[in-house]
Design a protein that fits this description.
With 466 residues, the protein is an all-alpha fold. The chain has 2 domains: 190 residues, MFS general substrate transporter like domains (Growth Hormone, Chain: A, Up-down Bundle); 206 residues, Up-down Bundle (Growth Hormone, Chain: A). The protein is built from 25 helices and no strands.
Length: 466
């Protein structure tokens, strides 16, 4: 949506900026302020994101606190996943039990959004994050105690990762309140870029830590990261009242169904979630890298490099999109990028070589950088009172479809072979992307129309027509 002075042809109506959602008044001084603010944002959007924007984001103390706490928690979790896998295998010698314990670090993400996301709306978000981190500190510290039975460790792992969902929902929901609109998208990009980099290096670093210090010390390190995250949040993040305190009588079910209705009943939110869920197809290469490498006559090392191609491409894409592409252009490119992200997978039908496969998978990763503006816009559109619940539901849906995508990719590879199976998955991704992409364009057109009408019907617009 653009400022009304770009929508209206008459100079007398060059007032206000609907994108900022500011109410027009008769006061000429307020009109002047809005004109200046609108010109300022227009200049920033045309220029994209500069190095100064990144510095401005980290200059916000609350963002630095949120980002550092999330980084510490993520680092501790990656080290703990390696430690738990090593601990389970050393005690049981069973690959199945090791995989089952590792799965307990992932399954709670699927359940936590619907079950606990509403907490981020009904309670102060800063305090919720602190409580979750402190409880997780105790749970992980108990795991680090020598001799704790493996079944108890499984229960503690599940409970600890279940608490990650409301904490993450609160952190994401708080971000628009912490950052000014002009640098909010940059803050989202920094968070997602950090997560991708941590995914790339976390397991490698975790393996070294566990090999040097042992599983118990590594779990103690994880507990310490949660304690540090809680302390940093308490020191740097300002307390705010609960965003959606509708009364103590509102049940979990009513909060959850209200969030579902909000997403399903808002065209822009529905389309954005649909674009995000296309990750079910885009992440398939990581799941089938080993059989694909085997089909090419390659070994484990090459399979690992192939698995890294997608996240490396995603990191590059995020940096390019957020640094060189203006925000308005990102919102326009978002749907085409989501559609085209599946196209490189279709080329697998031509049986390309190892290097070409790496380039194609990295290209898919680069195109998935559309998730940065999609996530930022989703959180920005959701009303503050329901932001935590909506973010929790969307996060759980994303985890669910990624799991289903892995199953789909495995079935297609089993049925048609690695190259043909991945190509079929790419075709399915292209077909599935059409509806949410068209829905997003229609939603954008509707928002632009509403913005034009609100500008023309505002007090100044009415005054100019008289």
């Amino acid at each position: 949506m653009v400022c009304s002075r770009h929508q209206l042809g008459r100079p007398r109506q060059r007032v206000g900026c609907p994108r900022q959602r500011l109410d027009l008044t008769q006061d000429d001084r307020e009109v002047t302020v809005r004109r200046r603010a609108c010109r300022h944002l227009d200049h920033e959007e045309r220029a994209g994101v500069s190095r100064t924007d990144y510095l401005r984001v980290f200059a916000v103390g609350e963002f630095s606190g949120l980002w550092t706490g999330a980084l510490l928690s993520r680092a501790g979790d990656q080290v703990a996943r390696v430690a738990l896998a090593v601990l389970a295998y050393e005690r049981t010698g069973s690959a199945a039990l090791t995989a089952a314990l590792y799965a307990l670090t992932l399954v709670p993400s699927l359940l936590g959004g619907p079950l606990l996301g509403w907490l981020a709306d009904r309670h102060p978000r800063r305090e919720l994050m602190i409580v979750c981190d402190l409880v997780r500190t105790v749970l992980v510290a108990v795991m680090a105690v020598p001799g704790v039975p493996l079944p108890l460790i499984g229960v503690l792992v599940f409970a600890s990762h279940l608490l990650e969902s409301p904490s993450r929902a609160a952190r994401i929901a708080m971000l628009p309140d912490v950052l000014p609109p002009a640098i909010y998208s940059t803050g989202v990009a920094i968070n997602q870029l950090t997560q991708q980099v941590m995914s790339l290096v976390g397991f490698a670093v975790g393996g070294v830590v566990v090999a040097v210090a042992g599983a118990g010390v590594s779990l103690a390190f994880d507990a310490a990261t949660f304690a540090a995250a809680a302390a940093i949040t308490a020191l740097f993040v300002r307390s705010r009242p609960a965003a959606g305190r509708d009364g103590p009588g509102r049940s979990w079910w009513s909060s959850t169904t209200a969030g579902m209705r909000l997403i399903a009943g808002t065209p822009s939110l529905r389309s954005l979630l649909g674009l995000a869920l296309l990750a079910a197809f885009h992440n398939i290469p990581e799941a089938i890298a080993v059989p694909y490498a085997h089909a090419l006559g390659l070994g484990t090392t090459e399979a690992g490099i192939m698995m890294a191609a997608l996240p490396v491409g995603c990191v590059i894409g995020m940096f390019v999109v957020t640094t060189f592409v203006p925000e308005r252009t990102r919102l326009l490119l978002m749907a085409p990028m989501a559609v085209l992200a599946s196209a490189p997978l279709v080329v697998s039908a031509l049986r390309p070589g190892f290097v070409t496969v790496l380039v194609l998978w990295a290209l898919t990763g680069m195109l998935t950088a559309y998730h940065v503006p999609a996530n930022a816009e989703f959180v920005r559109i959701v009303p503050n009172a329901q932001r935590g619940q909506a973010v929790g539901l969307a996060s759980s849906a994303l985890v669910a479809v990624q799991g289903l995508g892995v199953l789909l990719g495995g079935a297609l590879v089993e049925w048609a072979g690695p190259e043909q199976g991945l190509a079929i998955a790419g075709l399915l991704g292209l077909a599935a992307s059409v509806a949410p992409a068209m829905g997003w364009f229609r939603a954008r057109a509707g928002q632009a129309t509403q913005g034009t009408e609100s500008a023309e019907d505002g007090p100044v617009g009415r005054r100019s027509r008289r």
